[in-house]
Amino acid sequence: MGDAISFRCPDGSDCAGYLAEAPIATKGIVVLQEWWGLNDQIRGVAERFAAAGITALAPDLYGGRVTAKPDEAEHLMTGLDWPGACNIEVRGALQHLKAKLAKVAVTGFCMGGALTVIAAAKLAECDAAVCVYGIPPEDQARPAEMKVPFQGHFANHDHWCTPEAVDRLEAALGPTSIPWEIHRYDAAHGFCNETDPAYDATACAESWARTLDFLAKHL
Question: In terms of DSSP H, where are the helices of the chain?
């Protein structure tokens, strides 16, 4: 089990988070929430990384607010300053882990996946990125600006992060020099969230195995 912690951000503020420490770890990962908030499901993802030998920290980007209602989740997500959250809370989480660990990646789901792309493009502390069904608007970060190894996992039946958007992401990554992978699954948005009706155990297991292989290679 992990622990609720507070860590310092670059602007001097404090951010709450959930830290799951691997017993002997040399690498870490920042886990970014879906639009629901820092809930038990995201804490469980952090714990799975720790069990795999990667210390994980999930920052609370909503300041303690959690919901299971889509309308409220959309309100919380659209009210979040995405570049600001990356530059303050996500960067603070990276710095907190890098105080003890040599390399740290960022991963996220849905909203957190979009924030992962921003982090990969904007944050020097980020050493690798794994995005799960999330792409930010280009005025937030252009995928071609990413500077670290990148892996993306996307659903073929997704009305938010559409296959067409993934096509554009793949085209943008083509000319870059970074190592990158795009994986597509015959599933729907939310296939990695075991509490979501769209959960797909097969697709989730495949994406998890690919994520761990990718991190072993690039961290």
Answer: 40-51, 70-79, 82-85, 91-98, 111-122, 163-173, 201-218
Distance, in Å, from the CA atom of 61 to the CA atom of 25, rounded to the nearest integer, reads: 25
pLDDT in tens, 88-117: 999 999 999 999 999 999 999 999 999 999
Number of domains in the chain: 1
180 strand-pairing partners: 150
Q: What is the pLDDT of residues 155-166, one digit of tens each?
A: 999 999 999 999
Q: With a threshold of 0.85, does the pTM exceed it?
A: yes
Report the candidate in 204, 209, 178 with the shortest Cα–Cα distance to residue 190.
204
d(CA 32, CA 60): 8
- CATH number of the domain encompassing residue 73: 3.40.50.1820
Rama region for 191: left / alpha / beta (φ>0; ψ in -120 to 50; rest): alpha
Q: How far is CA 75 from CA 42, 90, 178, in A?
A: 19, 20, 35
Q: Which of 131, 77, 88, 92 is nearest to 108 (CA)?
A: 131
In this structure, are residues 38 and 18 in contact, taking their beta carbons and an 8 Å threshold?
A: yes
Handedness of CA 106, 112, 118, 122 (dihedral sign): negative
Rounded Cα gap, residues 17 and 113, in angstroms: 18
Residue 183's domain comprises 3-218
